[in-house]
Amino acid sequence: MTLRGRSTGVKVVFAHDTEMALVAAAALVNTAGSGGEKLPDIVALDEFFRAHGRSGRHEHSEAELRSVRALRPRLRRIWHEDEHGVVEIVNRLLREANALPQLVRHDDEPYHLHATPLDAPLAARMAVEAAMAFVDVVRSGELARLRICAYPDCGNVVVDLAKNRSKRFCDSGCGNRAAVTAYRARKAAAQT
In terms of CB atoms within 10 Å, which end of the chain has fewer, N or C? Predict the structure, then answer.
């Protein structure tokens, strides 16, 4: 796979824009996950916007922040639904935004799908980008790649893009915590 001119040596699971949208959707859901509110203000939303390569209209307003926060529980439901439930959520998100998929190029990215204009409200663009990515997940029969973090009491969502489908923990350090816990348990068992 080539990512912005670099060979990663990783087999493509989904198209690049789909993977980016899935990662951004999970990250957005997890801003309301364990550990408290991670989108507490407009500055945090601005950082999220930059970190996930968003483009287009961004108002930097409290109303925009509220609408993005309101999207999180709708997306979180996707990780808890069966295929039919996911399809209902995805179709509703696409209908509400009057999505009209089109191939576009911008910011040195190859052609990819946008289904809302760049001047659409941020929450609507985020909802549609996520919905379009979940369309690919459903069509590929890959819903099993959507998981809840395996670390006890975490509850964050996970998108497993690993070739061998082995990702068990979220990106909030739970994998490291699990490794430390296992190491300490082995060490304690060896000392007894």
Answer: C
